Amino acid sequence: MNDVELMLPGEFGAATRLSPKALRLYAEQGLLVPVRVDPGTGYRRYHRDQVSRGRLIGRLRGLGLSLARVATLLPLDPPARQAELRAWLAAQEEQLRRRRELVEALADADRPVAGTPMLRARPERKLLCREQRTHVDGLSDFVADTEQRIRARLRAAGLSSDGPTLVYFHGLVTRDSDGPVEVAIAFTGSVEPDGDLRVRLSPAGTDVFLPVAGVDADFPDVLRAYDAVEVWLDAQRLTCVGSPVEIWPGTGGAAVDVTYPVATG
């Protein structure tokens, strides 16, 4: 190796705009390893051919990429690397859009939801239902598909299929969280399960509910209705005893009722 082509860490750092700390870190991680290390003094030497790699690492790190992500990008040819970066950027823009959406929802958090939560009795009922994990972006399609299948199954059994759609949220459902969602329709009579459609008994009890108009029924605006119900529950010293349920359509022409089962005794 021609020593003329070797560079001291200071020279190499100046050429790549990388700090001594960064050079040590990248060497430890195997991203930018000196071509020569003196066994006695520990002095490191880099080759001039490594300058372009060092600059690339610096630019990638400047994007906020993790060391692991940088390591996967370095071996790629430029077109493949650019394609990966464009995909990463699109994901970042989508994440920023979601955060902006939630920030705007928080800004509207003090805007009151029309109506006041109320209590009502919940009868015992048999449900034909289907459960699946889904993000909020897939929620409408899952509910629509499941509702169609359940109503078709009830009609095939000669039963009424006109009841409202019950959507149970057994976990947090957002754009990033795919909590379990159960879609159900109450029925009277007898019907056999079919595939992932199952039958279960929902016990009688008491619900607190808040009708939500169409303008406030979509995510993330509907979160304000959940907040309003929860604040009301706290003020009334009532305890939620199960998963929240959205009932589509809601009471009195509302798009949806946001309901929570509560203990009243």
TrEMBL record:
SUPFAM superfamilies: Putative DNA-binding domain. Residues 6-76 form the HTH merR-type domain. Keywords: DNA-binding. It comes from the Bacteria. The keyword Repeat does not apply. It holds the Pfam family MerR_1. InterPro entries: DNA-bd_dom_put_sf, MerR-type_HTH_dom, MerR_fam, Reg_factor_effector_dom_sf. This is MerR family transcriptional regulator.
